[in-house]
Amino acid sequence: MASGVATVWVPVENMSRAVRFYGETLGLDVRNEGDDWTEFDANGLTIGLNARESTHKGRGGGAVITFQPDRDLYDEVVRLTDAGVEFVDEVSQHPWGRIASFKDSEGNDLQLFEAPSPE
């Protein structure tokens, strides 16, 4: 039985490009940085960027990470779009919240999630 998430590993092809994306574009704090492994703090969750081995190249994606924006979801979509992020589709509305899907610099699937407002 799992009691929580310790670390999310995200495969990347270009570490410096991915570090810029997660650090500058998403605004996460770097814990430690290296050529093959870089860690970010995502509000207590460690996101580890793991360099792909040359035998495993490909932009097929990997883990899906869902982020909770610090502000209104639509405001964050605008901010990220202005930073060059391309969203896969429009924000989707569900009874359990709203989702905005996009890809990181390495082709991995990411999302913004906003829970519904309490009535």
UniProtKB/TrEMBL annotation:
Domain of life: Bacteria
Domain VOC: 4-115
Protein name: VOC family protein
